[in-house]
Design goal:
Layout: H1 2-28, E1 35-37, H2 44-58, H3 63-78, E2 82-84, H4 90-101
Antiparallel strand pairs: 1-2
Helix pairs in contact: 1-3, 2-3
Length: 103
């Protein structure tokens, strides 16, 4: 239970930190963010189910892999590491190219 509480607390700190940091960044820069500081909380929506599914498939208890994963994710949320932001602008470029060719 303590690990789950630490995970939730780290996620809340990360989200609050991002909001304050993003507001400061928008006041001082006009271009889009290229890096996040700390792992975005939404990444856990991919990692945690994969780890738990692998533990379930292997037939082992999910307690140990789940606990370790929650701890690692919690520390990654608040760690001062730079995580590159994914860029999904490819679809937008295709739409612009189609508009240019239609003229």
């Amino acid at each position: 239970m303590t690990v789950a509480g630490f995970y939730v607390l780290a996620a809340i700190i990360r989200l609050a930190w991002f909001n304050v940091d993003e507001e400061k960044r928008q006041d001082s820069a006009s271009k889009c963010r290229e890096f996040y500081t700390g792992m975005p909380v939404t990444v856990s929506a991919f990692i945690l189910p994969i780890v738990l599914a692998l533990a379930n498939i292997s037939g082992s208890s999910m307690l140990i892999p789940g606990t370790i994963t929650l701890l690692v994710l919690a520390f990654a949320f608040i760690a001062p590491i730079k995580v590159p932001k994914l860029n999904f602008s490819i679809g937008h470029q295709k739409n612009n190219e189609q508009e240019d060719h239609s003229e």
